[in-house]
Prior knowledge:
By secondary structure, chain A is α/β, with parallel strands linked by helices. Chain A has helices spanning 22-36, 54-58, 63-70, 87-101, 115-127, 143-157, 162-180, 197-202, 230-236, 265-278, 295-304, 313-319, 335-338, 346-359, and strands spanning 4-11, 46-50, 78-81, 106-114, 205-207, 210-211, 220-229, 241-250, 287-289, 329-330, 373-380, 385-393.
Amino acid sequence: xxxxxxxxxxxxxxxxxxxxxxxxxxxxxxxxxxxxxxxxxxxxxxxxxxxxxxxxxxxxxxxxxxxxxxxxxxxxxxxxxxxxxxxxxxxxxxxxxxxxxxxxxxxxxxxxxxxxxxxxxxxxxxxxxxxxxxxxxxxxxxxxxxxxxxxxxxxxxxxxxxxxxxxxxxxxxxxxxxxxxxxxxxxxxxxxxxxxxxxxxxxxxxxxxxxxxxxxxxxxxxxxxxxxxxxxxxxxxxxxxxxxxxxxxxxxxxxxxxxxxxxxxxxxxxxxxxxxxxxxxxxxxxxxxxxxxxxxxxxxxxxxxxxxxxxxxxxxxxxxxxxxxxxxxxxxxxxxxxxxxxxxxxxxxxxxxxxxxxxxxxxxxxxxxxxxxxxxxxxxxxxxxxxxxxxxxxx
Amino acid sequence: xxxxxxxxxxxxxxxxxxxxxxxxxxxxxxxxxxxxxxxxxxxxxxxxxxxxxxxxxxxxxxxxxxxxxxxxxxxxxxxxxxxxxxxxxxxxxxxxxxxxxxxxxxxxxxxxxxxxxxxxxxxxxxxxxxxxxxxxx
Lengths: 395, 137
């Protein structure tokens, strides 16, 4: 198996409704990544795109073929990946496998979404399609409702008074808002830096006990990365970032995960595979962009990834152990909560952040000092798809 | 290989307040909602049985922001119930004020009825779900 490096990354702003089409958004991110890689579109051997709801958002299917043609990657294989919110991470992981195998030497992978353009009603309906349509949707399940139920289960399982847990969860949102407020590509850039526990708890209830400020926004945006074999990477850049470990896992409806909940077993398996492949441990990770679709999701993720003991992640956030300067810097980009969550692009956005952090290129206020090893964690559905990736400096 | 129990037949039974599940002939585990193989040991050797539908609430939420087409239903309470037979299933809870649902619901015993979601343009038809109520409540 060949070593595989990220040689270039690109991203649009993550934001509310944008006027650009999904093809246009993806093309802008892709050309940024290709240009940064010192490559031309004709050098790309295959193109893998995460896109979840383009059919609903703008009546566009098969966006990957139109995007490839749009940027002059002519007649290459172009694949679309749909694993709900983990779609772009699936695309990047598969690109990794193709390059590692030696079949292709340069692959572009990323994702695009216009979830904000759909509006809250249609977005809520379509996001619920990633729960079980026959056995869960008739009950009126929504995505906030899944994580709201996990919140009550978490409080009961670990015997944490709900009010205390909600205050700890508010700390998660506050940290994410602070980082996102100084990330120029974040949906909440320049906003919410003064968020307080009282404001989080007092905002309107979406699905009890989750308020607006416990939930990530609907977002539009795109992100892309170029992966290349080690041999090619060394010719293209002095700062290759190697993808040293990946894992992916899947599972069924929420109720069928009952042996483990509120733990997400698919994440434990996925991350263990990534750690084993990279030969590193949770304590080696300097920063992690993890899937904080809801504040409680950060606590559950950080525990399953092995950063903190089960039931203690809330305390870790209170003590700053999950912040820059703590045990592991979680979501220095602002995460899904503040950077935004254009679901088909989110995983690529996480990789974009990790790569730029390892290169030392982000704004000083949110740069993790001397970051050498970074990780991504992307969750699709209510645990139905999990992807983890580990990245290391190649210089 | 054909399923022993498919959604259509599960749904028709639920509309008669009968909860059907599958009992594994290899390990005895009960699987519901139905699928091809046992949720515990992955054996396809299962038989259809009728479950009691009684259990206790493991977790809950009250939804205030609805999906398109279901705005008139909010607020409503969703529960995950651990059936006396073992599996967890999702349903709604009636007989309480959804806006005041609290942690005290967890552990409460419930019995099962049903309610039909009539379907929307995406759902390929209707689907019943368990409608639980508190025992003695």
